[in-house]
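quick one: S-adenosylmethionine bound model?
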Amino acid sequence: MTQTKTPLHTARWTVAEVQALFALPFNDLLFQAQTVHRQHFDANSMQISTLLSIKTGACPEDCKYCPQSTRYDTGLEVEPLMAVAPVLEAAVRAKAAGATRFCMGAAWRSPKNRDMPQVVAMVEGVKALGLETCMTLGMLSESQSETLAAAGLDYYNHNLDTSPEYYDEIISTRSYDDRLATLAAVQDAGIKVCSGGIVGMGETERDRSALLVQLANLPQQPESVPINMLVRVQGTPLADSEELDIFDFIRTIAVARILMPKSSVRLSAGREAMSDEMHALAYLAGANSIFCGEKLLTTALPETDRDMQLLRRLGIKKQLLQSAADEPQLHRHLQAAADAAAGYYNAMPG
Ligand code: SAM
Ligand code: DTB
Ligand code: SF4
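yep, here:
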């Protein structure tokens, strides 16, 4: 059922207003972003998420940036949907390493209904560990959103990726409106929205402004806004894109912070190639969330030690888990996952 929600914001931003923010002197923009940041957050606190690719590659979509599209030869090893047990093991490791949220991503256009029970078991198991849960599975219908909400999914990640005007240059197999419809289904089901985009794809500053305007003017601002720097993967059509100026990237974070003052802004893909100084500038501009771990979905992340050392050097604390593991539930889910795995292996010939 569609519920009416109180919007998290009242201002509606125009592209011209946002372009004016981008045009500010760098120091003025950063000062404004840091001021807004401090009104809503502890400026020295970082939320840590860990990503796991639960189904890798062979995606039918044609997103030009993506190593997982079946249309581009990126040498990626294809993996079918993972069993529940190894997903829970990865979540246990992520929790031990200090993550508070566990994000599971699948290279799908949208989930098939036959995959939903397995995906639901993953959400329930990860939640029983006391971690926040997040999934990114492609487009969702209303009923799939409701199923995931009932399983206890906290966040759903679905990016708008770029401006409506530049979008057709990047993806042809799903429309901007398709993406907005998924965000509406997710929000209506009561799941928190994680939605952002990618910069460095050859877009203009106006496109970056228009993307942020779309996100900021959603009926409810996303609770989490990932800003990805394009990872230029060999074999994808965007492999030779021109590198974005570092300060234009930092400006994008700062403007996101100003437009969406209560949202977490996540410094997402592309961190491996960023210096410590660039990380520090991104945090000053208002980024207060990162992905840590061995990798994102298919591409590398900085070593966790390097991330943790930098946070220490900057006096930034890791956000702590809000809830403890539900031990009886956890054991039930681990047992069910082990039983399912045993059944699967017993059924294997030989
Ligand atoms: N298949 C699902 C979908 O597209 O909705 C979920 C996974 S998809 C890989 C999640 C997001 O990762 C994309 O929307 C895109 O923003 C980001 N992404 C993918 N490849 C990237 C790359 N090479 N550089 C930066 N971000 C990337
Ligand atoms: C998001 O905005 N960034 C993450 C997460 N949501 C799922 C994914 C980045 C993927 C980068 C390319 C890769 O590792 O495959
Ligand atoms: Fe598929 Fe998602 Fe990659 Fe697009 S971004 S090709 S939908 S995995």
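The longest strand covers residues 45-55.
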